[in-house]
Design a protein that fits this description.
By secondary structure, this protein is of the alpha/beta class. The chain has ten helices and seven strands. The strands form two sheets. A five-stranded parallel sheet has the order 5-4-1-6-7. Strands 2-3 form a two-stranded antiparallel sheet. It starts with 27 loop residues before the first strand and ends in a 6-residue tail after the last helix.
Length: 244
């Protein structure tokens, strides 16, 4: 695989050779998980399931407001640092946040287990079709995710695993995106050069950081609700796959 140039504050230390011809064709696409191919059910639905009792709108608004306020709590913020480097750190980060709301503290563990439960995740409406089109065109596919558990059972539950050949889970590598090691590991797994690979995600710094490893990147706008059309058809165009 090609060696990345070393950069100083203003640019590369050594002049790169002029590109010969058009950019390399996209031979592989790497996808983020949450917010890209899948989204978990709403917090309101998850809270009701964890509490296992009716929760009125006023009470729910108070609980959601508590979670929002908890994001600014120093203990919660501290627990988020390097949360994806291990399964233990990931669980600690999320349960600390959930437990910052007193009413949710007794079910913090149950809320976390929802993350690990395939049925709580919903594929976006266009995920399956886009994965199938890419795979059918001979494009190698993989997942690169900052996560604290193995995602393969979730993809298998929704019958989306068959198109994917590489799984780079941050907790298994002791690091987080945009560490180049995660992207380069996935490229090695798929047998492609980074210059032939596109990373698709929803986080500018993390997923867009794939460019630092020599990949191309495409960052989706945030905020899509579970089950919506995500706009993944743009990936087909970037991979040079037409509408036919």
């Amino acid at each position: 695989m090609s060696r990345l140039p070393v950069h100083g504050p203003e640019g590369p230390l050594r002049a790169a050779p002029a590109p010969q011809g058009p950019p390399a064709a996209v031979r592989a696409v790497l996808f983020d998980f949450s917010g890209t191919l899948f989204q978990i059910g709403t917090y309101a639905d998850r809270i009701r399931a964890a509490l296992a009792r009716p929760v009125g709108e006023a009470e729910m608004e108070a609980l959601l407001g508590g979670l929002e306020a908890g994001l600014s709590d120093p203990a919660v913020a501290g627990a988020q640092r390097a949360r994806d480097v291990s399964a233990r750190a990931h669980r600690h980060a999320f349960t600390t946040w959930y437990a910052s709301v007193p009413e949710l503290a007794p079910v913090a563990g149950a809320l976390y287990e929802q993350l690990r439960t395939p049925g709580h995740w919903v594929p976006y409406a266009d995920s399956a079709a886009v994965l199938a089109r890419l795979a059918g065109a001979g494009v190698a596919l993989g997942v690169v995710s900052d996560v604290g558990w193995d995602l393969r059972p979730t993809f298998a539950h929704h019958r989306l695993d068959g198109w994917l050949s590489s799984w780079a889970h941050s907790f298994e590598h002791g690091t987080e995106k945009p560490d180049p090691r995660l992207f380069l590991y996935a490229c090695r797994e798929l047998g492609v050069d980074p210059a032939e690979t596109l990373m698709v995600g929803d986080h500018p710094a993390k997923d867009g950081g794939a460019a630092g490893a020599g990949l191309r990147s495409y960052v989706l706008p945030a905020g899509a609700a579970p089950g919506q059309v995500r706009g993944l058809d743009a990936v087909l165009r970037l991979a040079g796959i037409g509408d036919g």
